[in-house]
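Thread: "does anyone have the structure for this chain?"

Original post by V.I.:
We have the sequence but no experimental structure in hand. Need at least a predicted one for the grant figures.
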Amino acid sequence: MRTLIMILSFFAYTSLSYSQNNKDSIAKYSFPIMIAFSAHSYSWPILKSFVTPIQPGFKTGTEYMYSAKKNHKILQTLTLGYFRNPEFLEAYYLNSYFTYRYTAPFHLFVDGAIGAGYFHRRHTREVFKVNDKGVFESKTDWGSPGAQVGLNLGAGYAFNLKNKQLDLFINYEWFINYPHVKGDIPFLSHSLYHIGIKYYPFK
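Reply from O.Q.:
Generated one for you, tokens below.
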């Protein structure tokens, strides 16, 4: 009986210790500050997805850690971004990706993610409409709301600076937005390359 109590006590202690360590890891790695610069193109995944001149953009955001076990992490991102094509459209987006991240012993990490969000586009050139007299006149473009669904693949390196962590990362994001032009072009495919940094203030 005493042996059984000792065994159960050992497992209970181990479980509580692991749970506490996992909670500590989640707290340390949650809510980093992320900012990145982007290069955008209208393309299918990988195929001619990097174009020149660069169509610039940026994104900023954070993430919440669901689980942190050794080299494996499950997390959720929240990102606000913008990009601009001077000849076509500019867009604002707010999305969230469910992400799996693997970190190697030498601080290199890779991740994959799937997610969705809100997408709002506007024309970058002046928009006209035909008035009651049949004459074209300038029209205010408030943009068009829509949804986006996409994938994200990334890699980076984690630097430890004075007990704080700073990540340098690159990632490739592909998504479609819907609707694009109702009745004619239901959706449009986008590619985004990001390079940025992520700082963990609570680590």
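V.I.: this helps a lot. The CA atoms of residues 178 and 187 lie 5 Å apart.
O.Q.: and The chain is about 15% helix and 60% strand.
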